[in-house]
Amino acid sequence: MAVALDATWPPDFIHVVFGSAWTIIDLFAGLILGPILGSLSIPARIGFTVKFMPKIVVLTPAVVTATLVAGS
Question: Taking a C-beta distance cutoff of 8 angstroms, is the pair 12, 70 a contact?
Fold first, then answer.
């Protein structure tokens, strides 16, 4: 619809918002979860990873794809 109306702000807005979300998720995982996981025992890390990974495997590619598509 934005292309048909020759409006560039909707995809630019989506690109910036989803790019910010991508950066926030990446920093949170690296700066917050990384040290926490490093202090846990191996079984606790496995338990966390089993619950966390399915969510992040769905969320991250969706955010990355939206960012890249809106930015092109």
Answer: yes
Confidence at residue 1, expressed as pLDDT on a 0 to 100 scale: 59
DSSP secondary structure code for residue 40 in this structure = S
Q: What is the pLDDT of residue 57?
A: 94
- Kindly state the tokens that stand for 48: 């966390």
CA–CA gap between residue 17 and residue 66 (Å, rounded)? 10
The residue ranges of every structural domain in the chain are 9-71
Low-confidence ranges of the chain (pLDDT < 50): none
